[in-house]
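re: ur question from earlier - yeah i can do the single chain one, its not a big deal. heres the input i used so u can compare w yours
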Amino acid sequence: MPVKVHSLDHLVINVTDVARTVAWYQKILGMEARVFDPGGGKAPRTSLSFGDQKINVRPHNADKVEWFTADHETPGSEDLCFLTTATPDEVVAHLEANGIAIEEGPVPKQGARGTLRSVYCRDPDGSLIEIASYED
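and the output i got, formated as tokens:
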């Protein structure tokens, strides 16, 4: 019988500039930056917290011994969807007010629990960011 997972705890994104990425996710998506000790004598790491989840922000040039990670890490290769309680029009207004180009949306998309209304933009490394809310 396979192991059945029930939720996502964290993920890691590879970036060219940790400070620039953290500032963007704080300003645009309201995430909280945290520095934590990974233990084992390794250097402190930075994460972005939201809800009960976090994103660990890995510098692209980090040593693979320091960061046990994917075989082919590349900044800008993520495609992430974040849920919000804001309306799609509020998301568009917020992105425009902050000079963030909208790639697509608002458009309907299929999410894990049904139909989403999604707005797409890109983070500083070019990763595709979907900001979505479920339709009532």
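Residues 4 and 56 are 24 Å apart (CA to CA). not sure if urs matches, ping me
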